[in-house]
Amino acid sequence: MTENKKKTPLYNAHVNLGARINDYHDFLMPILYDSIISEHQNTRCNASLFDISHMGEIVVEGEGATELIQQVITNDVSCIRNYQALYTPICNVDGGILDDIIVFKFLPEKYLLVVNCINTDRDYDWIKKFKTNATSICNISEQIALLAVQGPKSEEIIRDVYGDECATLPRFQFTEITHNSIDLTISRTGYTGEDGFEIFVNQVNCEKVWNTLLEKGKHLGLKPAGLGARNTLRLEAGLSLYGNDINESTSPFEANMGWAVKFNKPDFIGKDSLSLQRTGGIQKKLIAFKMHDKGIPRTNNEITHDNKVIGKVTSGTFSPTLKIGIGLGSVLKFFAEPNSHININIRGKSYAATIVHTPFIKKDKQI
């Protein structure tokens, strides 16, 4: 039944473009327009436009906002300036990852948190538990639309549409502009392994911005792309997906995110548990692997070594760039060394694979 599902403000635009629509965490989202492989390759060679309005946005502002952010994240916002962004996990008291988010710092007492759609309500409720009366927390997800231009020609497209101020943004910085009487926030982060920008806009004006980008970017190869290509792109970049590769039963150290845990800042949720992991070690670890031959790994396939189960695949796909299966998986730490040989059980058959470093695809220009 689709009547109970959520739709982004671009739902009708996707339907009119012939997109295949599927349920993604209760959102009706475009999975593909043409094919996953063609959209993937266009992102790698030119640029693609993604509707990511299913993501959640939470504003934290007012007196005590910085202290609250510092308490609920493992990273350290004191290390960034105004109009910079920061990737960070949010952990529970046991060190399990409740979400991985990006914090956008507008002012010392105003932040925007971009969270995974599967966790928007939970994150909002979790953060409210620790607020003071002077701090305001507002879930604005139903007001904001979010678009992403990703690919090697994204800078040129953003320059043509919005000018040098936006096109020359350093990575993990953002700016606020007004274009054609529409207020926008434009950032430069990305989830594809390519150069890329995000455009935050009020939902009322979202379709105008979408159409303008497609029209003005057409001569540079800009085309719409769905969540199918977004998934293969992020996997080639070795980036984790919440709910697949990381969850509340995974710690940042187990997920190779220890660099985003800052112990030299004031107390934060999960600090004691994560300190024990840092000194006492971990039992499992997230690894990346590449298949030797045929066989496409999928989520929950068993990972074995010498016929013993050592873990499971958390994400797997066919790599359109490498023309072979790749994946991420959680295994016992003892078996997690790069270049180690493992096997993936796919539909009752064992296929050889090798643990590798990420990203799977190294780009000449990864800013």
Explain what the structure shows:
This protein has 367 residues and is α+β, with helices and mostly antiparallel strands. The radius of gyration is 21 Å and the shape is globular. Helix 2 (36-45) packs across helix 8 (227-236) and helix 5 (154-162) crosses helix 7. A 6-stranded mixed beta sheet has the order 11-12-13-10-4-14, with helices on both faces. It has helices at 11-16, 36-45, 65-72, 120-128, 154-162, 164-167, 206-217, 227-236, 271-280, and strands at 6-7, 20-24, 27-32, 47-51, 56-62, 84-91, 97-107, 110-115, 135-139, 144-150, 174-179, 182-187, 196-202, 222-224, 284-291, 302-305, 308-319, 324-332, 341-346, 349-356.
Helix-strand blueprint:
Elements: E1 6-7, H1 11-16, E2 20-24, E3 27-32, H2 36-45, E4 47-51, E5 56-62, H3 65-72, E6 84-91, E7 97-107, E8 110-115, H4 120-128, E9 135-139, E10 144-150, H5 154-162, H6 164-167, E11 174-179, E12 182-187, E13 196-202, H7 206-217, E14 222-224, H8 227-236, H9 271-280, E15 284-291, E16 302-305, E17 308-319, E18 324-332, E19 341-346, E20 349-356
Parallel strand pairs: 1-3, 4-14
Antiparallel strand pairs: 2-3, 4-10, 5-8, 5-9, 6-7, 7-8, 10-13, 11-12, 12-13, 15-18, 15-20, 16-17, 16-19, 17-18, 19-20
Strand count: 20
CATH class of the largest domain: Alpha Beta
Give the helix tally.
9
- The rounded Rg comes to 21 Å
- Give the amount of beta strand, in percent: 35-45%
Question: For the residues shown, what is the average pLDDT?
Answer: 96
- Principal-axis shape equals globular
Reading the helices and strands in chain order gives: EHEEHEEHEEEHEEHHEEEHEHHEEEEEE
